[in-house]
Fold this sequence. Notes:
It is a single chain. The chain has helices at residues 2-45, 48-78, 85-94, 96-144. By secondary structure, the chain is mainly α. It has one domain (13-132): FlgN-like (Methane Monooxygenase Hydroxylase, Chain G, domain 1). The longest helix is centred in the C-terminal third of the chain and has 49 residues, at 96-144.
Amino acid sequence: MAQGASGTSTQASSSAAFAAVLLAEHDALGAFISLLQAEQEILVHGDADRLAAIAPEKSAQIDLLTRVGQKRDRFLSDQKLPLSAHGVESWLKREPALAAATRKIWSESLRRAEMARQLNINNGMLIENRMQQNRQKLSVLQAAARPDNVYGSSGHMGPFRGGRAIGQV
């Protein structure tokens, strides 16, 4: 009988630990969304210095989300549940004592994950637009740097191919 009580206690402890993992994932998603929103604001204003400044924090947050997701997956795997939202839903059905509060956290986590996905897509499009603008500007600068009426690598002026010669009207 003592062994059964101990098993129940271990299972309860394990379930509480899993609920804590889901809460940690929820919180990490919230922090990640804040970073993505800040990144979006920076991209809109074109502030490359600030963008570079938040990159390490964004990387750290991605690492945290990865670690927490791996913990969630390990628990689900140990419980012989699918490594998916369906697996978490199945676990919630098994744990009525934790289900109410944890279900709310899980639902909000799913909403946050979708929001982060959308922000990331939008930020990617902003980055692509900035890169396209930079390529166009670079093209203009490169074209302007190639006129034939400047000194070449030999130190001599290249042949003049148009426009007006100096001193002529």
